[in-house]
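Feature request disguised as a bug report, sorry. It would help if multi-protein outputs had a clear separator. Right now it looks like this:
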Amino acid sequence: MVAPLRAEIARETGTDELDALVPEWLTVPDVAEVAGVDQREVRRWLQERELVAVRRGERAVAQVPAGFVTPEGPLNHLKGTLSVLADSGFTDTESIAWLYTPDDTLPGTPVDALKANRKTEIRRRAQALSF
């Protein structure tokens, strides 16, 4: 089961931009602890794209932005938003960067808007990116 998981996780070498945008990262065991589930469930979320991760650090460990995880599991409305971004041609890394890039017209970031249940506005903006 590890091999398919690796295929789902973006392997990026230049994560400096993401490190500047994303304040906190969680490994798979950390996500499991926050959500109160076992690591198999977290891997399922990654495979089903309810969450996305990038490989970071010297050991290229899969990590998820902490803002994507709640005690109930993946952030509400994240999966659909990730699907819209993927349909617009965004990689996982680009999707994370877009979700964490401040936007004065929101205000805040798209991930902040998702946390505030403003999925329609965020998905509309994500769809507009493909044009």
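(second protein starts here, but nothing in the output says so)
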Amino acid sequence: MSSPSAVSPLARRIFLVNLCAQIGIVVTGGLVRLTGSGLGCDTWPRCNDTQWTPHGESSIYTYIEFGNRMLTYVVGAVAVAATVIAWKHRPVRKEIRYLAAFQLFAVVGQAILGGITVLTDLHPASVAAHLLLSMFMIGSAVALCERAGEGDGPVRPLVRREIRVFAYAGVAVLAALLVVGTVVTGSGPHAGDEEARRFDVNVDQMAWLHADLAFLLLGAALALALALRVTDAPVSAQRRVWWLLGVMLPQGLIGYTQYFNGLPEWQVSLHMFGACLVVVTTVRIVFGLRERGDAGEERDQDASDAPMDVPAPADEPLPATRY
């Protein structure tokens, strides 16, 4: 049951649209790289030295890159709507405000980082930072959606402390998995442009390290599912872990298939979309292991549990007094 101070259904829909927009920009950004359109617009903020927008003689790669730039404005508009509705909510929810405002400022930061990526001719470190920031934005967008359905009261754990620590460790493994994944991408064939630099590492070794971390996260999810089952954790918490497992199994299959088939573009695109879903389902697990009501609920509960002074009935005789 949602808290009375939870945001309105309209606000929650906007926060969900914001999450979908963050995932969408990752997928379209991947398409830019996979089609070799990363330098379709070879400078920033202009598209080229003389034009702000493509013209009739521009190549298809220019239009693909420019189209992805324009999608940034769509994502930014959604972030603005989320921020406005978060700041208008009453009672004031500071954490909701901060999470929504982060989405807006991060979109601006992503635009600047994207410009730096173009100006450095798609340096792999800049490309990796661009993707990692997007993944962090997706995680924070999930947090915004989850907190929108909670109150600001004290956190009430639904499982043992050891299980919650284990879940946070899973998030750390996910972070390492994403970082190594960007290194794999930065040393593989899909650079966004034929002349772009690559990381000077063994791509096969990095790919297997990436796979090892994926197996570690999968094993952690299985162990967490078992721990929740044997401790009779709420079904809602168990279900969230099964969602992660349901995403990771096809994600792993796609990863192996693309590796042994020369990294076909459509499979790489699916793998990027799957990575976004892994972030979403992993972060949701952390929120599913606790609950939060309104800030005043605990005080109200304490007051209701306190003993009350019950006066004696008026018609009972007073006890005799011995002088």
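Even a blank line would do. Unrelated, but nice: The chain has nine helices and two strands.
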